[in-house]
Design brief:
globular, seven-stranded antiparallel sheet, single chain, 214 residues, 13 strands, alpha+beta, six-stranded antiparallel β-barrel
């Protein structure tokens, strides 16, 4: 489990297919405690929970490696990432840590498309469009002023509208968020990972089950 309070980025140094349904991702991070992460640890990359399979100290930081399946690439924007890109990185929550964001599982529901992107004063305004199957997976759990994980970052929904064939919601990112994330590198029409609030999913599932079995 994660909080969505991303405080560091990692540089992608390798991304390659190693078998028919498996890819390997190598990143370089300068998080001080990264050398203490055990193999098998859960680490979120752009909000995607992946398992640490290799770790090696280098003069430029800790090189960490992960594997991703076809399902992960199809559900997320991982396949859009290129060597040299910066991605958000967050280690899993430890017992006793402060939960400053919201409960994030690292199980990305799907991708949205950046439909508006502009600076408004010192803040970055984002509008994200969700369509098709991604809309069915995500839109029912987005609420005005609720929490959503965007590329792994816990953010607050500013506004929300359901149109005939898409759902659109907006975000306004403050300077601190822009400083510690990679959002200044976003591109119009780019894909972005979305994970809806798990509490909304549990609530909807409870109602669904009760309607069928009561």
């Amino acid at each position: 489990m994660f909080t969505g309070l991303v405080r560091e980025s990692a540089s992608v140094v390798a991304f390659e297919s190693i078998s028919k349904n498996l890819w390997k991702i190598e990143c370089l991070t300068k998080i001080p405690e990264a050398n203490l992460w055990p193999l098998g640890a859960s680490i979120a990359l752009n909000g995607i929970c992946l398992t640490l399979i290799q770790s090696q100290a280098t003069p430029n930081g800790q090189k960490i490696s992960f594997e991703a399946s076809t399902e992960t690439l199809e559900r997320t924007n991982l396949s859009d990432i290129k060597v040299g890109n910066k991605i958000h990185i967050e280690p899993s929550l430890k017992v006793g840590d402060s939960l400053g964001g919201h409960w994030v599982l690292g199980h990305v529901d799907g991708c949205g498309i950046i439909s508006q992107l502009e600076m408004r004063g010192d803040c970055l305004f984002l509008e994200i469009s969700i369509k098709g199957l991604d809309r069915k997976r995500i839109a029912p759990y987005i609420v005005d002023k609720g929490s959503i994980a965007v590329d792994g970052v816990s953010l607050t929904v500013n506004s929300l509208v359901d149109l005939t064939d898409e759902t659109r919601f907006t975000l306004l990112l403050i300077p601190h968020t822009l400083k510690v994330t990679n959002f200044m590198n976003l591109k119009l029409n780019g894909r972005i990972n979305l994970e809806a609030d798990v509490l909304g999913k549990f609530s909807a599932r409870e109602r669904q089950f009760s309607e069928v079995h009561t």
